[in-house]
């Protein structure tokens, strides 16, 4: 089956970029979700919209895997492409690709989605009629995905953050892009200036609510010339999200 593919062009504004004039990873993720939302608005039927509204359910992000040749630059026009590649009873896997103006692939990302019952705050089964318009392949086996490396918090650097009102999204929890901001902000400015992220995986494990304070832990590992940072977001003694990113020295 050929998946339903959606493409949209955007020009990257300066205020979404860092001091190196490349887009923040958290802002890139927001663009991806905007594109997937536009596809859903285009192909979703009234029946599907009623399902989510009447049963108080919503798509949520459970994980990302990034493969980054380079991040889009300030004032660059890029094309975002997305499609749902596969789903099973509980999870849907959506691909995101970003192309430059010459149609060179510069970013590839796989996101794992689930449907949450917003009343019970738990993941529920994906109905076949909800998945059908995306023309994704059904596979009853749950896909084996990469996982972040473990982090020893007692050996890690950390920063504390208060959850702001603006961090909370329509699902009444911290938006997933905010976790990326917390994680990367815990790195020293000199490291971020001298390195570019080239791949990574992030897993969201437990929601963060508005009333909480969180700590962002990070540890840098260098093995056989490879530079990796391992991250954890914790509130109280609960781990809310984990990630590992690989880096290369900036040219």
Automatic annotation (TrEMBL):
> Residues in domain Acyl-ACP thioesterase N-terminal hotdog?
5-134
Q: Which residues form a coiled coil?
A: none
- For the keyword Nucleotide-binding, the answer is no
**One matching Pfam family, short form?**
Acyl-ACP_TE_C
Could you list this entry's UniProt keywords, alphabetically sorted.
Fatty acid biosynthesis, Fatty acid metabolism, Hydrolase, Lipid biosynthesis, Lipid metabolism, Transit peptide
What Gene Ontology molecular-function terms does this entry list?
acyl carrier activity; fatty acyl-[ACP] hydrolase activity
Q: Which domain of life is it from?
A: Bacteria
Domain Acyl-ACP thioesterase-like C-terminal positions: 153-248
Q: Which family, according to UniProt?
A: Belongs to the acyl-ACP thioesterase family.
Output this protein's name.
Acyl-ACP thioesterase
Species of origin: Dolosigranulum pigrum
